[in-house]
Amino acid sequence: MSVRQLSLFVENKAGRIAQIAGVLAARKINIFGFCLADTGDYGIVRLVVDKPESAGGALRGEGFTVTENAVICVSLPDQPGALATLAAVVAGAGCSIDYLYWGARESVIFMADDVPNLERTLTEKGLSCLVDADIA
After folding, report:
1. Domain of 92: which CATH number?
2. How far apart are CA 23 and CA 80, in angstroms?
3. pLDDT digits 0-9 by tens, 29-74
4. How many domains does the chain have?
């Protein structure tokens, strides 16, 4: 049920985000979710895109180090308390959120310690988990 996320290890210098976005734009790959975490001289760019295979190949071809992993993407209503509800369900399942960022179409993308079981719990609690086909 999860979605695929691409993570890129990038040098923290001018133009890197423009380069990444340009590689994807040239191939008509849409960015659904995007996060940048700075660690000083380097950063980690996390992406959820509509064509992960093409995106990964294109970015690797440009010399980027790219890894792929499964993350949870949940649709949340645009209303006060929606994130609190999600966080309460995650905590109630005994899981922790490693990182979280906003995606398109009123969604939240995050990594947790037990993705398959947590997705099941979220669905049982009435939250809508997206899959790759929902993003394409």
Report:
1. 3.30.2130.10
2. 36
3. 999 999 999 888 899 999 999 999 999 999 999 999 999 999 999 9
4. 2
Q: Hunting for tokens 């997206």 — which residue is that?
A: 130
Q: Are residues 85 and 40 in the same domain?
A: no
Among residues 69, 87, 119, the one where a domain terminates is: 69
**Radius of gyration (Cα) for the chain, nearest Å?**
15
Residues 96 and 50 in one domain: no
Encode pLDDT of 1-22 as tens digits. Answer: 689 999 999 988 899 999 999 9
Please give the residue range of the domain that contains residue 112: 71-135
* C-alpha to C-alpha distance for 57 and 131, rounded to whole angstroms: 21
